[in-house]
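In the laboratory, one determines a bound structure by crystallizing the protein with its ligand and collecting diffraction data. In a computational setting the workflow is compressed into a single prediction: the sequence and the ligand go in, and a structural description comes out. We illustrate the idea with flavin-adenine dinucleotide.
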Amino acid sequence: MVNKVVIVGGGTAGWMTASYLKAAFADRIDITLVESDRVSTIGVGEATFSDIRHFFAFLGLKESDWMPACNATYKLAVRFENWREPGHHFYHPFEQMRSVNGFPLTDWWLKEKPSARFDTDCFVMPSIIDAGLSPRHTDGRLIDQPFDEEAEEMQGLTMSEHQGKTQFPYAYQFEAALLAKFLTRYSTDRGVRHIVDDVNHVELDERGWISGVRTAEHGELTGDLYIDCTGFRAMLLNKALDVPFISFQDTLPNDSAVALQVPMDMERRGILPCTTSTAQDAGWIWTIPLTGRVGTGYVYARDYLSPEEAERTLREFVGPAAADAEANHIRMRIGRSERSWERNCVAIGLSSGFVEPLESTGIFFIHHAIEQLVKNFPGDEWSDVHRDLYNRSVEHVMEGVREFLVLHYVAAKRNDTPYWKDTNTRVIPDALAERIENWKRVLPDSENVFPYYHGLPPYSYMCILLGMGGIDLHHSPGLDLSDTAAARREFAAIQEKASGLTKVLPKAYDYFTRLD
Ligand code: FAD
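The predicted complex, in structure-token form:
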């Protein structure tokens, strides 16, 4: 029976994996996690997808159990600033797209254009975000929308099983280091053996399978299954087992980031409950509000900008509050391992693959990988079927997200610097080029987006196409022959609902302080 697991690495990936496997298999699995105190964790990764709530639910945790310990806030959307032109912004919200007479409301919007903003016309969330509000009432009730929280939690479905059925209205933002600490306690309380040491050699047997990892001070650690959570180093999968890495650099050129953690009085400043991505001359800056500070960073391509210039731009963007914050310069490895599961080794996290953090997909990749690992866990034999299904699923998720991110740059209207001009001529995946041609005439739907599960529903693509403004879109011709009354009623109902909610919801900051 495969039930002895060694996890190398104690970042977000290592501890999410350890705690999820314990929640899934309890004492029937034996887990050792070894992490180095010499090699630091990446130190970023603070915004998530709305599906992350299934992770905490699986661990049996309520928001009040973990959010205060991790300085966590709600994220209702990604806000894109200046991607179209200076001063312009739009939201990609966590909110299900409405349909009227079989057409998505965005299609009706292209025809009717009640205002210049598709996001506030078609969704309720943008108005709530602009007002800095919580998606829960003071008594904890979720905003009034078609969503039965409890019934959904009872079903215990995985992320991919949920997709398309519902859209939960928010995700979380948290301090990565505090989450790792919280999950360390969760895991060790449930029996995970925690070793702080350096792994300096990976032993292979005569078949080329891993037989142990040698540590500096704790000797050799052995198991049946080895999980590589060593970050961009990918010490087990890419180095010891020699699995090739497929770079995405040709289509996604951002290869660097500089990050700052900026302490701020969030009570005074207030919390805009979203992650903001502000386009810059050679990339974009993220802004993530937490309860005690803001996390921010410039993601850029070294072909266009030096690390010194990136840091200077970031500090100017943040202002005087950044003066004492230490800069964390990061070199990103963009792409995926050809196979994330090889022999008796599974890589999870940055060791498996990574695309730039434009839509906060890193932790989603980890969550997805763990769900798939549990689903395909080897049992009493190593079956190629389980391994191949796992690898295919991980490949699909990363390739799908890659397409979605490339779309951001292709669709952005911004065209004022060499970096943005080159987005017009850079190679894009063939299938995406064809899909974009279709989307000019028929907005994305489940039949014409990337065909495998990758966490992004068709409405997400619509938001990017409509918000970025660089691609000419046409409403469906059938709408010209249709009665518009129902669509107009829907647009009016959204305005009414948004205006009602902004009057009664509490401020986001006030809501978190009462979770303590
Ligand atoms: P790391 O954090 O690098 O951890 C590696 C671990 O391996 C450490 O514990 C280290 O000590 C250990 N280790 C390494 N070598 C050895 C050794 N020889 N012996 C023992 N231990 C060893 N994701 C999101 O979802 N949302 C975001 O907003 C987001 N923003 C990001 C921004 C940037 C700039 C980057 C680069 C990534 C971002 N990500 C984001 C991705 C996210 O940060 C990662 O997916 C997540 O932190 C997981 O990292 P990890 O655990 O795989 O690696």
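Residues 256-330 form one domain. Keep in mind that any predicted model is a hypothesis to be tested, not a measurement.
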